[in-house]
Amino acid sequence: MNKTIVKKESTKEFIELKTEDKEKQKDIIITNIIHSMCMPANLKGYYYIRDAIKMVVNDVEYISEVTKMLYPEIAEKYKTLSSKVERAIRTAISITFDRGNIEELSKYFDAKYFESDKKPKNSEFIANIAEKVKFEIE
Prior knowledge:
The protein is mainly alpha-helical. 70% of the residues lie in helices and 0% in strands.
């Protein structure tokens, strides 16, 4: 990653700049992972999943409160309903497991999903990728 060193007057400004870089790094890692799985970017669920993963990376509590916290916040951001967010995420996961890059998906998910028609739950999909992102940014 190329970095531009910017001289700042205070340490606080420098720390904020580093935080922005880290947030951008998270976005890049998340996008690269879901692109490598061949998740279609034309699906609303693609964007919802990207946001959901980032939210879980930033605060793991979201994964235990998917229907009470995660979906409602994403729905509010995109001016839609929680139920539509949940459905769009499920559809994106389903399409990705049906048509995506199995080799790449197998890096994140158990073999049981490739031996049957089973798909991971939304929360499992989000949590597995969020965990990998955390390891990459540390």
